[in-house]
Design a protein that fits this description.
By secondary structure, the chain is α+β, with helices and mostly antiparallel strands. It has one domain: Hypothetical Protein Aq_1857, Chain: A, CATH 2.60.300. It is 15% helix and 43% strand. The protein is globular, with a radius of gyration of 14 Å. It comes from Actinokineospora spheciospongiae.
Amino acid sequence: MTTAQENGTEAATHGVKLSAEAATKAKALLDQEGRDDMHLRIAVQPGGCAGLRYQLFFDERTLDGDLFRDYDGLKVAVDRMSAPYVDGAVIDFVDTIEKQGFTIDNPNAGGSCACGDSFH
């Protein structure tokens, strides 16, 4: 966990990185919905065939202990419990014939299931 200067005070931030493509796509989705009051949240929850499952969604809530990072106007939130699991992870957006959607490359994952939705 690192800190960033925010209005002269120290603000806690997370170590998730968002590619330019992912930031552009997420902003476009929010613009399409006409929402400027939401942020992108990445969370880790128990579940899936490998033990832990990613959740990536737009959220208007701010949870106690949330860690934020700004990407050209797009806020990305990670709750304190999920932060250690996704520290150093890179979120990208791919749009190819074989695959379309957000991907997460997580150096903390020891392995994942075949579907790619869960990890351990």
